[in-house]
Design brief:
This is NanoRNase/pAp phosphatase. GO terms for molecular function: hydrolase activity; nucleic acid binding. It is a single chain. With 328 residues, the chain is of the alpha/beta class. It folds into 2 domains: 196 residues, inorganic pyrophosphatase (n-terminal core), CATH 3.90.1640; 122 residues, Roll (Diaminopimelate Epimerase, Chain A, domain 1), CATH 3.10.310. The chain is 40% helix and 18% strand. It is built from 14 helices and 12 strands. The strands form 2 sheets. A 6-stranded parallel beta sheet has the order 3-2-1-4-5-6. Strands 7-8-9-10-12-11 form a 6-stranded mixed beta sheet. Strand 9 and strand 10 form a beta hairpin. The longest helix is centred in the last third of the chain and has 18 residues. It is globular, with a radius of gyration of 19 Å. The two termini are 31 Å apart.
Length: 328
């Protein structure tokens, strides 16, 4: 468990805060940022959330007033530097903060990391890390409570969404008594899990559904059935009018194949780079595999960005997975 007293002191001594998370933010990132921002505002602090990527459409319910900035759109690096404390949530990797790295390099603000991932870089920050936490949302809730605050219904819903999604709705091995205790408290604060689930999974678009069908039809198994993998090309998004966030959870669908020990999905980016998401349900440490490509994450869930072309990136990833499986 984290000793939050140093961060409590930092918060009480400062007035202006910027909160940042990783590129292509997921619900753990957005929910944790919003919950933390709400708590700091309750203390009378000036808070801005500035991310390297826009909030995905399907997570807009977590930020109903569209208060989150994307760096470079309505806010500059210089403006982002105008703060007392810069808090980085749900990552501690230079690659993951992307363009916000320019702010971190230039700012005179005190830098703070709140994270639960194993992979880590030196961001020159005061770190509050606990890799045993199932989600960044767990840490944010514990910090808010350490401040002596009780989340309101909006903050509780945001944090619940963070935890629920990052644990696969409580089915991943990371879930423990601590996780469920957090959930119990959040539901006690008024969270309605059925409403959150409906917002996340029962408002799909036809384009998203068609994309899932196309990508799942490509699933292949290799290495004696130990690996299940698939891919998404830029032309898939264009032809189906789908959004990059529509690929969420597809890698986990691959892992449902009986006998599969790990799964990957490769997603071609507009830039020509290839995003790879890794999942494992055995002792295979996919964070180590991701780290060989400059990425990282958890032992059983990680990611990396590779240079293109797509076929070359795919071959490199498959070879790395084969070597990791052989070494087990």
């Amino acid at each position: 468990m984290i000793d939050w007293r140093p961060l409590i002191a930092i918060v009480h001594d400062a007035h202006r805060f910027v909160i940042t998370s990783h590129v292509r933010p997921d619900a753990d990132a957005i929910g944790s940022e919003m919950g933390l921002a709400g708590a700091l505002r309750a203390l009378g602090k000036d808070v801005r959330i500035i991310n390297p990527s826009a909030t995905p459409n399907h997570l807009s319910f977590l930020d109903p007033h569209a208060s989150i900035f994307k760096l470079g759109e309505g806010i500059t690096v210089e403006e982002a530097c105008q703060t007392d404390v810069h808090i980085i949530v749900d990552t501690s990797a230079w690659q993951q903060i992307d363009t916000v790295g320019k702010v971190i390099e230039k700012t005179a603000a005190t830098k703070v990391v709140i994270d639960h991932h194993i992979s880590s870089d030196n961001l020159g920050a005061v770190e509050f890390k606990d890799t045993s936490a199932a989600a960044a949302g767990v840490l944010v809730l514990e910090f808010i409570e350490a401040l002596g605050l009780v989340p309101n219904i909006d903050q509780a819903t945001q944090i619940f969404t963070a935890i629920a999604t990052d644990t696969g709705w409580f089915r991943f091995p990371s879930v423990d008594v601590r996780t469920m205790d957090c959930v119990k408290r959040l539901v006690g604060f008024g969270v309605q899990p059925a409403v959150v689930y409906r917002e996340l999974y029962e408002r799909s678009t036809l384009s998203r559904l068609k994309l899932h069908g196309r990508v799942l039809s490509r699933v292949a198994v290799d290495f004696e059935g130990k690996l299940a993998h698939t891919f998404v090309l830029q032309k898939d998004f264009e032809e189906l009018n789908a959004h990059p966030s529509d690929t969420e959870d597809l890698v986990n669908d691959c892992l449902t194949i009986n006998g599969a020990q790990c799964a990957i999905i490769l997603v071609e980016q507009k830039s020509g780079q290839v995003k790879c998401s890794f999942r494992s349900r055995t002792g295979l440490d996919v964070a180590r595999v991701a780290e060989t490509f400059g990425g990282g994450g958890h032992r059983q869930a990680s990611g990396a960005m590779l240079p293109g072309p797509f076929a070359t990136a795919q071959a490199r990833v498959l070879k790395a997975i084969e070597e990791a499986l052989t070494a087990e």
